[in-house]
Design goal:
- This protein is of the alpha/beta class and 289 residues long.
- The protein has twelve helices and nine strands.
- The strands form two sheets. Strands 1-2-9-3-8-4-5 form a seven-stranded mixed β-sheet. Strands 6-7 form a two-stranded antiparallel sheet.
- Helix 6 (164-180) runs antiparallel to helix 7 and helix 10 runs antiparallel to helix 11.
């Protein structure tokens, strides 16, 4: 059961579930599209299990800075080197750009932080076709595509939806985050926005202002050389849930199955919250029913 083998990867499952059929009754092949929270905490033992799934591509819906600041060993980076995907073009992240985030973080790395040295992450990158796992056979070497769904168009639109006080307090928190390497802006801004709009309206806004990015993702998935694919963001719920819903919709999966797939993230959300220590306060009437 692949959905229960990763203790450090909450929300990991096959998108839509197994034995999935669309509204025309056509069977959708199992083992092609997976979803999860971020993969940064995978252990070496779990890495071997991950490779046996044959996943060729990881679609990472986090911003570049969000990826760089993330804690964890990032043991998959040697086999799935990060690439920035923008407007249909994928560019590999240079080592100098892959390690940063906040003055506090940089000081920590100088003393020996949680990330392994960049040169260690680059080992084996000359081989772009395959690598070996535990000796049982070769595994395909793929790519991690970072696709930013928090575009400036979306941010400025959302920024205009909240009141004057929240706007300027948010800007102050951006400065605090840059100095101390924390995430106060995201937590406060998300709290303010969720209590201003319904979650569904936020999803519609995201789709409206990130059309090129969504198109890039769909082009990746329809290319057979990129599947099986894993789609994830930070917690595997909102951004991941939105993109997975779009993909399942394109496959003509019925709405009830799409909603059920989304709602399964609530079952394991306490694992994600416990891991990152996030506390969100949302008015019940603002939640999606």
């Amino acid at each position: 059961d692949v959905e229960s083998v990763f203790e450090t990867l909450p929300n990991f499952r096959q998108a839509g579930g197994r034995s999935l059929c669309n509204q025309e009754g056509r069977r959708i092949k199992d083992g092609l599209i997976f979803r999860s929270s971020r993969t940064d905490f995978l252990t070496q033992e779990e890495k071997l299990k991950f490779l046996r799934l044959g996943i060729r591509s990881i679609i990472d819906l986090r911003r570049k800075s969000e990826y760089e600041r993330a804690e964890g060993s990032k043991v998959l980076d040697d086999l799935y080197p990060p690439h920035l995907l923008e407007r249909g073009e994928a560019k590999e992240m240079k080592p100098s750009l892959r390690w940063g985030g906040g003055l506090r973080k940089r000081k920590k790395e100088k003393k020996g932080g949680s990330h392994p040295p960049p040169q260690e992450q680059q080992q084996g990158k000359g081989d772009t076709t395959e690598a070996t796992d535990d000796g049982s056979g070769p595994c395909i070497k793929g790519k991690r595509y970072l696709v930013n769904l928090m575009t400036m168009d979306l941010i400025w639109y959302v920024f205009g939806q909240i009141n004057f006080f929240v706007r300027y307090l948010s800007l102050l928190l951006v400065l605090v985050d840059w100095i101390f390497g924390c995430h106060l802006f995201v937590k406060f801004f998300s709290w303010a926005l969720v209590n201003k709009q319904t979650l569904a309206m936020q999803y519609f806004d995201m789709l409206e202002y990130t059309k090129p990015a969504v198109a890039d993702i769909l082009r990746l998935i329809i290319d057979k050389s990129n599947v099986p694919v894993l789609i994830h963001c930070a917690h595997g719920k909102d951004r991941t849930g939105l993109i997975v819903a779009v993909v399942l919709g394109c496959l003509e999966v019925d709405d009830e199955t799409i909603v059920e797939d989304y709602s399964q993230s609530e079952v394991t959300s306490f694992l994600v919250v416990g891991r990152v220590g996030i506390v969100m306060i949302i008015e019940p009437e603002k939640c999606v029913q």
